[in-house]
Amino acid sequence: MGKLTRNQNWSTTSLGTPDQWPQSLRTTVSIILNSRFPMFLFWGPELLCFYNDAFRPSLGNGGKHPDALGRPAIEVWPETWDTIKPLIDQVLAGGDASWNEDQLLPIYRNGQLEDVYWTFSYSPVSDESGEPAGVLVTCSENTNKIKNINQLRISEQRFQNLMREASVGIIVLIGEELRVDVVNRVYAQLIERSRDELLNKPIFSIIPESEEVFRPIIEQVRQTGDSLYLYDQPYFVNVGSNRKEGFLNLVYQPYRELNGEISGVMVLCQDVTAQVKSKQQVKRSEAKLRSLVESAPFPIGVYVGPDMVIEFANQSILDVWGKGNNVIGKSYAAILPELATQEIFDQLSSVYTTGVAFHANNQRVDIVVDGKLQPYYFKYSFTPLFDETGKVYGVMNTGAEVTDLVMARQRQTEAEESLRGAIELAQLATWSLDIKAQTFTYSERFMQWLGFSDDTKSIDDAFDPVPETHRVAVADAVAAAVRPGSSGLYNNEHPIVNRLTGQQRIIHVHAQVSYSVTGEPLLLSGTAQDVTEQRMIQLTLEQQVQQRTEELAAANEELAATNEELAATNEELESSNEEYAAINEELTESTDLLLRSNDNLQRFAYIASHDLQEPLRKVQQFGDLLRAGYGDQLSDGIEYLTRMQSAASRMSTLIKDLLTFSRIATRQDAHELVSLTELVRQTIDDLDLVITESGAVVTVDPLPTVVGDAGQLSQLFTNLLSNGLKFRRTDELGKLVPPQIRFSSRLVLAHELPPGVKPTRMASKYNRIDVADNGIGFDEKYLDRIFQVFQRLHGKNEFAGTGIGLAICEKVVANHGGAITAASQLGEGATFSVYLPV
């Protein structure tokens, strides 16, 4: 500042150059510039400004310095002028010097207006005449000190508020007498006293009943300086004649003075009575639950951690495992290593990692018991167990052994299959009446007899095929059988008329009512047998007997006329008896012929199909000879020749397909292991030329190995693959889209079968093999037609074929105890699903 003052151009001010200044000014400025205490000088009528290096930092950066030097005060201090001008005037008027401490005076500095606290004095500076010519300001900035003081006050206020409003009890005990120095409302309420009752009094003079338990704890903390934490600590205090009891979480901390000396103990306490009592209740409940679980009659186990360490296992599950009772703390895999190949470890791991429960129904599990691997069946669940953070920490295993039930069901299934076989052998139809819903359900054979396409009909529709002459009697007989209190038996014989063909049959019907546990009739189910031929034979026999009877009557009349005629008539009667016996023998032979008729029909189809091939080959060969030798002479006849050969070719294909269908229908099932993966790959090799020409992409996922006839199964997948290659769709430009065909499989349980899928053999599990393509697809309303013989959804000019391929597929699947269905939409491809029993 000395340098700035010397270099300042003072000639532009009223003072002139420094050599013209009065001695008093030069002396005062010299004192200011050499002082290390902040000083400021207002001089002359204009109150020109001088200041030193100690004062300069108070002006800040980018503010008044250095422009304030030599300028009038009103220009330098406009923001504080109203405050400092009266003080300056007072001093210049001969008044006493002024002193101000911690005065708030705003100042523009550092680019903004700041609130600054100052301690300063204003003193007069006299000129040579002894009159006040200037004002000397000595000052110091106290802003940080004042802010710190204010912050301390705020902190103190916050501490008091925190103490007062804290949700935990707080008390500070000072000295050996443990005098209450600080206590908040929560603590006072905890012991049901007021703060005024506690402040400045020894705590155990107020609650002496607590001294025996808590004084040793407080003294330990006060003497050692170590904090102490107690949880769920029981306590009691006397409130009048009553005793208040509960539980506290307590924190004891040493209370230190500024010099670090321990003068007392601060206690923080939280009432956890409700929580402790709740925990005690939970423990009692857990004990009851554990006792209940341990004695439960069904298996329960708990496994924790990724290694599935057994934390709990009740006696029921120990009995199932048959490994003894020493399993706790061991891994599930170590106790039951035989399950490693049975997917159960993977199921447990999936539940542990995903948190999604797994449920199995009637699952076979092979367990080593008494040193022997034995099959058992269980319904079991693996349920994830979550900790308080929502993370899976273990798995609970619950289940029930259903071995006896499953074996009983298997025996029932075998019995049903045997019954079904007997029904099929006897060529019986089956039906049932849902009594409550009043709907009839029919087997396929019965549907064919009646001309129905749906297997379920209302009761009115069901009686429609019965001729009117018999309809009321049949309805009355059914109603009588299902009427409460009846025998529940239905036995009737009546005609029926096929609604499509008009063919009439005579059927003999047997049925029995099934009842609920309350005795309510639920279902009338039974069988029907076509006895048309028997009744026709019987009618013929009766007519013959009637005719013979009439002849005998005439003979008797003649016998009455003459004895000779009587003798002759007796001989004729004996002859008639012999004829009657012959007729009975003929009836027996007719019945045997009836039983062999279906077998002969199938053999005839085979022979006829085989023998028709030879004339067709000759038609084609002679056509080739005509074309080669006389093609130029035939003129327009060449077109007829071409059409003839085309028709012969289609006829040959049809006969071959019929022959294949006949072979499949008559061939006995072969029982051998067939790898479907290898079989499909062989089929792809056989159709390699067609696949290459069409640009097809055929994908084969791993397929199962099944028991069956390799030849028939090959025919099945050859037809399905051929369909996928044949029925190609076109794109927007009319160009054929290369086929994309995928073979895949998965295992499904019996209860997961779609409603329309009816396998010919019951099993607990089925292999589902899907053959999906990207072809033209079809409308699913034709689903019941596509597996019938000669059924086509497209003209022969659009796609070649005989309409037998899918019928062959259906017959092959049926021969193997399974079922086939399809899913499709027009223009979006089709998926054929084959279900084969495991």
List the SSEs and their pairings.
Blueprint: H1 2-7, H2 23-34, E1 39-43, E2 48-51, H3 73-76, H4 81-92, E3 98-109, E4 112-126, E5 132-141, H5 143-165, E6 169-174, E7 179-183, H6 185-190, H7 195-198, H8 203-206, H9 211-224, E8 228-239, E9 242-256, E10 262-271, H10 273-294, E11 300-304, E12 309-313, H11 315-321, H12 332-335, H13 344-354, E13 358-369, E14 372-386, E15 392-401, H14 403-425, E16 428-434, E17 439-442, H15 444-450, E18 456-458, H16 459-463, H17 468-482, E19 489-497, E20 504-515, E21 521-530, H18 532-561, H19 563-634, H20 637-666, E22 672-675, H21 676-686, H22 688-694, E23 697-700, E24 705-708, H23 710-726, E25 740-749, E26 765-772, H24 805-815, E27 819-824, E28 830-837
Helix pairs in contact: 18-19, 19-20, 20-24, 21-23, 23-24
* Major sheet size, sense and barrel closure: 6 strands, antiparallel
* Unreliable segments of 5+ consecutive residues: 794-800
- The tally of beta strands, per DSSP, is 28
Task: Please give the share of residues in helix.
Answer: 40-55%
Strand order of the largest sheet: 18-17-16-21-20-19
**Distance linking N and C termini:** 106 Å
Which range does the strand content fall in? 25-35%
Question: What is the general shape?
Answer: elongated
Please state the CA-atom Rg, rounded to the nearest Å. Answer: 56 Å
**Sheet/helix structural class:** alpha+beta
Quote the average pLDDT: 82
